UniProtKB/TrEMBL annotation, chain C:
The lineage of its organism: Bacteria, Bacillati, Actinomycetota, Actinomycetes, Kitasatosporales. InterPro entries: NADH_UbQ_OxRdtase_chain4L/K, NUOK/Mnh_C1-like. It comes from Streptomyces zaomyceticus. The chain crosses the membrane at residues 6-23, 28-48, 60-83. PANTHER family: NADH DEHYDROGENASE SUBUNIT 4L-RELATED (PTHR11434:SF21), NADH-UBIQUINONE OXIDOREDUCTASE SUBUNIT ND4L (PTHR11434). NDH-1 is composed of 14 different subunits. Subunits NuoA, H, J, K, L, M, N constitute the membrane sector of the complex. The keyword Translocase applies. It is a multi-pass membrane protein. This is NADH-quinone oxidoreductase subunit K. Pfam families: Oxidored_q2. NDH-1 shuttles electrons from NADH, via FMN and iron-sulfur (Fe-S) centers, to quinones in the respiratory chain. The immediate electron acceptor for the enzyme in this species is believed to be a menaquinone. Couples the redox reaction to proton translocation (for every two electrons transferred, four hydrogen ions are translocated across the cytoplasmic membrane), and thus conserves the redox energy in a proton gradient. It is found in: Cell membrane; Membrane.
Length: 631, 523, 99
């Protein structure tokens, strides 16, 4: 069975290679090949899953070792895979949701002449992400980690002719690279501390080194997670990444990429458990991002950017849960999976809306679309109910558990974290209701564009609606399925360990509070956007709204400090290199030249002056000789 | 007496150079094919060397030794260790691609006289450089090495000064002046370095009484040759200075951007991917092999210089407006990594540095040659003159991107393996230096992606609308290089197998042991 | 006669020759002054040979004469060709060999 693991990655990788190298011949069949190979990966994943369920809980991990990647004395990096329950969860999510997104893209990208290449990149993305979650050591994980970065670069910048897309892609890669720096430093510390970076030996030996080392490793891993998962302070790429085609956004936000950071922290649970300081920072980052993303999501009129803010916020929940330790790991992953369903559904729904609206993204120019796109409306609506935590749907179960765990952290910290997560839940309900109302309810607000084309909203083709329907099922039922009899907890417990949290107030009270704040959030949004007509031109808004529209000034800050500062630095260095470093050398050359210029005046060409110097020289020599004799 | 394989490997391109130069003026194409054949024959010989070399055997293999200048104890001594084998393979591998990429770079202009034979000269000079570089990787006699180290400047000077890039801004005279400035600068820098090395070589002879690397190293190891600390340090500095100019290390680097900018792209590859490697190679073999104590003494300073090179080169690359100069500064940054790996004095660092030499050669060749193809199409080296090429010439843009990704050390491509080894090896001994060097990976992403974005993406510029995509000859250059980058990125074992034992020898030269991991050390 | 007097004569001749080389501009005269210096040296050599009873000095004098003869041939040829080209025998006019 374990020999199938490599095939999980191999299938989409083969697809990427075939599609990218195949040339125009494959233009007609490219999307089918890509989708098929992603589906193959999913089927293999299911087979392995069935096999895994057949074994006892302690004996479920599978290992496959291919060969030694970098054989250098004392440095053994293997191409080897590990498939345990945690990886399995991710494999199914990535390949399952990934396949659905492939199917969706067949319709969505139908009119793009570079569709074959798009599917090649999608396959590459899935392959890299699978490598990331299947690696059995940190270096191989890093391989997948950067592969994900590359694939996201290619996909975000897929419409390269748009300068904004090219810039967004570059930004995503660069910000991610800052995170990657953290991961590589973490691996270096691991290597010097443990002499290896394979999961087993490193995570098993955390008791044998100092807490300081572990804290350093933990913080560096957190930096890496911040980059990939778009957490403060490396969150700025996520909003711009919406420049990519919508299926890419769905893939990045639901199945791949942003989930990698959560995976990394949960995978390194043993390190964080032994480094409470690092854990605290994780929690703080999660809490800050949770609110940050939610606030940004409230102010955006661009439907995709509003959803992007929402992703940031939801990932913040997961990071926060992961930072809580054994009481939170399982719920972080559970929320990740349910979020995978409803966020993919929401993005695909948004793509479907854009598809019918001539690629318009401004929600102020939507309105009343429920009549025109019934399927999109229903599936998007179910995703919406799931994300705000409507009782009984997926998001309710997973988010409620995180809020409980946050309270269970204990002490003042627990109260603060609990309130933050509750506040986040309220804001989530608010901005998602806003999106829902602006898009599907109210009066139609669209107008003919500059060339006189009026959008004709219409339902999307079957290939697009089918994935949306399937994802809607996931959004509705996954949470309940996982929670009945604590199935998900029991499934992951052997890997991540689990402790029951004991919140200071009863679980029932917390659940009631969660529902209550959700209702409040929905209510406020309804008062603002449901009762009154939505203006087509955005009002000026308060200071906070304006700041939130600009992503809370994060880009302005980055621009002022890094871009402007960096430009000045490089410019002045170019100047220094030219004038100072090169100048010293050129100056030496010039002074030698000047000296020889003066010396050459002696060569005046007059034979008699040469004769004088000869006589003079001889006389001096003779005099010297005589003097020496005399002495 | 066995077959002198090493001599033959170096002699074939040398003889080929003379033959190529002798081809009559009218048979220009014949000269090109001859040069290509000779370079391929050399590649076959290098492959034989690679296969015949036994990683587990003697340190220096395939040795040859003949008396040369008896009075001074100068001998014609050859021998290769794993590091030499890897670099000979790199050199022999790159030259056919350089020849192929420069196929039309030295065609005479229509106005030139019929008897003018620049094409023959161009390819003959390239083969001459190949012969000297290969022989310098083989030489185990310090004097012989010194002669080759200096002699290769002469053909390089003519390649830079005589065959400039035809894409330039400004008038022809201006370009000619720029070119001869670059060539003279190249020559002067390297001559000054060589002069100081000559003094050190003579000093070494005075102290040791002969020039044989193996004998001196052995005598030093078993204590029969004592060297005063200050003598050893001065001699080390003399050697190191010359190698640091060639490598090039900050602040002796300014000749490289000029030379690489003004030379044609294949010659630029020849400089940075082949000739400069002699400098870093010699640091490993001569500086560490002959002066272990002084090497350790100088390490802190050299590590700092290497770090400055890494960060400074990358920052300057970001600020460049000329594509080729950008690649040159990127190379300076990469040479910083190589030097850092050598002087980290750990197994991982030195293995990484050796792999880095090979991988950097391949990746820079890929990036620079594609850039050369692009430049020759549009006739401009300025980044601002391009835009949207991706739309017009997708294959060219794709290969350019892969070359760029290799430059920024993406996992899966060869340079990642070496860069990570260098970083880990450095971190193990100098954690702060390791962390500073890691910032290089962010900066590398910055300059590569900015270059790609400005040239390849965005709206298509009017001037590049008609740009043709890569031709068959150009694909024949790029595709094997990229295939090699990927292969060595996921399976570097063939290379590490050869390099590892040699690194162990070097580590024992300097009597250094790897720092033990904390957990194991505790046990 | 005291041989030392020949040395005085030699010194006198050499001084006259040297002064001529430095002062005169006419190439022929300069040339003759060079010859005069050479012969002054010859005289000194022969005198020393006589004083020390050693034949080496006389042999060197012969060598000098041979070299001087060869020099005359080359030198005069140069002077004549310079004169033909420039219509002047002044050494100061022929000052082209400078940087």
């Amino acid at each position: 069975m374990e020999n199938l693991i490599a095939l999980l990655i191999g299938a989409p990788l083969l697809g990427a290679a075939v599609l990218l190298l195949g040339g125009r011949r494959l233009d007609k069949a490219g999307h089918w090949i890509g989708t098929l190979l992603a589906a193959v990966s999913f089927v293999i994943g299911l087979a392995l899953f069935a096999d895994m369920l057949g074994r006892s809980a302690d004996d479920r991990a599978l290992y496959q070792r291919l060969y030694t990647w970098i054989p250098v004395e004392g440095f053994q990096a293997d191409i080897a895979f590990q498939l345990d329950q945690l990886s399995m969860t991710f494999v199914l999510l990535i390949s399952g949701v990934g396949t659905l997104i492939h199917v969706y893209s067949i319709g969505y990208m139908e009119h793009d002449e570079r569709r074959r290449r798009f599917f090649g990149y999608l396959n590459l993305f899935v392959a890299a992400m699978l490598l990331l979650v299947l690696a059995d050591n940190y270096l191989l994980l890093y391989f997948g980690w950067e592969g994900v970065g590359l694939a996201s670069y290619l996909l975000i910048g897929f419409w390269q002719h748009k300068p904004s897309a090219a810039t967004a892609a570059k930004k995503a890669f660069l910000v991610n690279r800052v995170g990657d720096m953290g991961l590589s430093i973490a691996i270096m510390i691991m290597f010097t501390t443990f002499g290896t970076f394979a999961f087993g030996p490193v995570l098993g030996a955390t008791g044998e080194t100092s807490e300081g080392k572990l804290t350093a490793i933990g913080l560096m891993l957190l930096l890496a997670a911040c980059g990939k998962s778009a957490q403060v302070p490396l969150q700025s790429w996520l909003g711009d990444a919406m420049e990519g085609p919508t299926p890419v956004s769905a893939l990045i936000h639901a199945a791949t990429m942003v989930t990698a950071g959560v995976y990394l922290i949960v995978r390194s649970a043993d390190i964080f458990n032994a480094a409470p300081d690092a854990q605290l920072v994780v929690v703080v980052v999660g809490a800050v991002t949770l609110l940050f993303g939610a606030i940004v999501g409230c102010a955006k009129d661009d439907i995709k950017k509003a959803l992007a803010g929402s992703t940031m916020s939801q990932i913040g929940y997961m990071i926060l849960a992961a930072g809580l330790g054994p009481i939170g790991y399982v719920f972080a992953i559970m929320h990740l999976v349910t979020h995978g369903f409803f966020k993919a559904g929401l993005f695909l729904g948004a793509g479907s809306v854009m598809h019918g609206m001539n690629d318009e993204v401004d929600m102020r120019k939507y309105g009343g679309l429920r009549k025109y796109m019934p399927v999109t409306f229903v599936t998007f609506g179910l995703g919406y109910l799931a994300i705000i935590g409507f009782p009984g749907l997926s998001g309710f179960f997973s988010k409620d558990k995180i809020i409980e765990a946050a309270f269970a952290k204990g002490g003042t910290e627990g109260w603060i974290l609990g309130s933050v997560t509750l506040l986040g839940a309220a804001i989530t309900a608010y901005y998602m209701t806003r999106v829902m109302l602006m898009t599907f309810f109210g009066e139609k607000r669209w107008q003919p564009d500059a060339e006189g084309h009026e959008p004709h909203p219409h339902e999307s083709p079957r290939s697009m609606t089918l994935p949306m329907i399937l994802l809607a099922f996931g959004s509705v039922f996954a949470g309940g399925l996982f929670s009945i009899g604590d199935r998900f907890v029991k499934w992951l417990e052997p890997v991540t360990s689990f402790e029951h949290g004991h919140p200071p107030i009863s679980a029932g009270a917390i659940t009631s509070a969660t529902v209550a704040v959700m209702v409040v959030g929905v209510g406020i949004a309804y008062l603002q956007y449901g009762r009154r007509p939505v203006p087509v031109v955005a009002p000026r808004g308060s200071l906070l709204t304006r700041a939130a529209r600009r992503d809370l000034l994060q880009d302005d800050f980055n621009h002022a400090v890094f871009v402007r500062g960096g430009t000045h630095l490089t410019r002045s260095l170019v100047y220094v290199d030219h004038t100072l470093v090169d100048g010293v050398v050129n100056g030496t050359a010039a002074s030698v030249g000047g000296l020889s210029g003066r010396l050459r005046k002696l060569q005046n060409g007059y034979a008699r002056s040469y004769a004088v110097s000869m006589f003079g020289g001889t006389a001096v020599l003779i005099a010297a000789t005589l003097l020496m004799r005399a002495v | 007496m066995s077959f002198p394989l090493l001599t033959v490997t170096a002699a074939v391109p040398a003889v080929g150079a003379i033959l190529t130069a002798a081809v009559p003026a009218a048979r220009r194409t014949a000269a090109k094919w001859l040069a290509l054949l000779v370079s391929l024959a050399t590649l076959v010989l290098a492959a034989v060397v690679f296969v015949r070399f036994e990683p587990g055997g003697e340190r220096y293999q395939l040795t040859e030794s003949h008396s040369w200048i008896k009075d001074f104890g100068v001998r014609y001594e050859l021998g290769v260790d794993g590091i030499g084998v890897a670099l000979i393979a790199l050199t022999a591998l790159l030259i056919p691609f350089i020849v192929l990429a420069g196929w039309h770079d030295a065609d005479p202009l229509e106005t030139s006289s019929k008897r003018w034979r620049p094409t023959q000269g161009f390819f003959a000079l390239i083969l001459m450089v190949e012969a000297m570089v290969i022989l310098s990787f083989e030489a185990t006699d310090v004097f012989l090495f010194y002669i080759l180290f200096e002699a290769m400047l002469i053909p390089m000077y003519f390649l830079i000064g005589g065959f400039g890039d035809r894409a330039h801004s400004g008038s022809d005279e201006n370009a000619a002046a720029q070119r001869s400035y670059a060539a003279v600068k190249f020559l002067l820098y390297n001559l000054v370095g060589g002069l100081i090395m000559l003094a050190a070589v003579i000093g070494l002879y005075v102290v040791a009484g002969n020039f044989s690397l193996t004998e001196i190293a052995e005598a030093r190891a078993n204590g029969s040759l004592e060297m005063a600390t200050s003598t050893e340090r001065w001699l080390f500095l003399g050697f190191f200075f010359a190698f640091a100019v060639k490598a090039p290390l900050w602040p002796l680097h300014t000749w490289l951007p000029n030379a690489m900018g003004e030379a044609t792209a294949p010659v630029a590859v020849l400089i940075t991917a082949v000739v400069d490697k002699v400098g870093t190679f010699a640091m490993l073999r001569f500086c560490l092999g002959l002066f272990p104590e002084a090497s350790k003494w100088a390490t802190p300073a050299i590590v700092v210089l290497a770090l400055i090179s890494i960060v400074y080169g990358a920052l300057l690359a970001v600020g460049q407006r000329d594509i080729k100069r950008l690649v040159a500064y990127a190379s300076i940054s990469h040479f910083g990594f190589i030097v850092l790996g050598i002087f980290a004095m750990t197994t991982q660092g030195q293995s990484g540095a050796t792999l880095y030499m090979v991988n950097h050669g391949i990746s820079t060749a890929a990036l620079m040659l594609v850039a050369g193809f692009l430049i020759s199409r549009r006739g401009s080296r300025l980044i601002a003159d391009y835009g949207g090429v991706q739309k017009v010439a997708p294959v060219l843009a794709g290969t350019f991107l892969i070359g760029g990704l290799a430059t920024l050390s993406l996992p899966g491509l060869a340079p990642f393996v070496s860069e990570f080894l260098v970083l880990v090896g450095t971190y193990a001994r100098y954690p702060v230096a390791g962390v500073i060097a890691t910032t290089g990976i962010v900066l590398a992403a910055l300059y590569t992606l900015v270059l790609y974005q400005r040239t390849m993406t965005g709206p298509v510029k009017e001037e590049v609308r008609e740009l043709p995509d890569l031709r068959v000859r150009e694909l024949a250059v790029v595709v094997p290089l990229i295939a090699l980058l990927i292969f060595l990125g996921v399976f570097p074992k063939p290379l590490t197998d050869v390099v590892n034992p040699a690194v162990q020898h070097t580590m024992s030269d300097v009597q250094q042991k790897d720092p033990q991991p904390e957990v194991e050390a505790a046990k | 006669m005291n041989p030392v007097n020949y040395l005085y004569l030699s010194a006198l001749l050499f001084t006259i020759g040297a002064a001529g080389v430095l002062i005169r501009r006419n190439a022929i005269v300069v040339f003759m002054c060079v010859e005069l210096m050479l012969n002054a040296c010859n005289l000194a050599f022969v005198t020393f040979s006589r004083m020390h009873g050693n034949l080496d000095g006389q042999i060197i004098a012969f060598f000098t004469m041979v070299v001087a003869a060869a020099e005359v041939v080359v030198g005069l040829a140069i002077i004549v060709s310079v004169f033909r080209a420039r219509h002047s025998a002044s050494v100061d006019d022929a000052s082209l060999m400078k940087l």
